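Appendix B, record 7
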Amino acid sequence: MRLRAAFDEFVKSAEYAENLDANIWDFAIELETLRRLDLSNNDLRWLVAAGFIEYALETTAPLDTRRSFDQPGRLTFCPQSCFVLTPKGQAAGSAVLAGGRRQWVEESPVISNEPRSSADAHCIRPRWDRDRQELLMGTVVVKRFRVPATSQEAILAAFEEESWPPRIDDPLPPRLDQSPKRRLQQVIKSLNRNRRQPILRFVGDGSGQGVLWEYCPLHRNGYSDGIGD
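Structure tokens (predicted):
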């Protein structure tokens, strides 16, 4: 029951962020709140290690206009610890609240220190919703296009058509006035700009002829500038 109550709190937090078009870390849940829900340190460690939540240390000063966070130690918590759902956690939270607790527990990854790929670790892939002009990771809107961006959309459409493999070949049509490698590099940079949630990024494959995507948990995005792009 306590995990169900915790997921209810986490899902509400994510929904508040989505409703206000805000970064999910603006609604990060404090440790004190989870303590009131009777979650132990080991409950939290399991949720983190299983990839359902991420956490950071809040460093927001009284006069700051937005919340900011710093990198935490490994699976240790203090009063400044704050938590948010990962995309995988949002899917699990929806299952828990719908009564599917047994299924997601059975399908959870074995807790391990071995490195895993982005897709394997989080059991979820991005999705490009062309009609809504949204790039999603699970139910999290990573980026929303408000104006046409033909080259960026071409890359997202190519990934979507191939069911999001780790890498795709450059799908952009050639232009006589621009180097294909330079053009691809510029489009990749544009894809990584103006993300609502910096949990997904695109990189070149090193040859100038392909694009890769990778999941980016908070500790790989940096904390000094607060949250978001």
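Remarks on this record: The chain has two domains: 2-117, 125-218. The mean pLDDT is 81.
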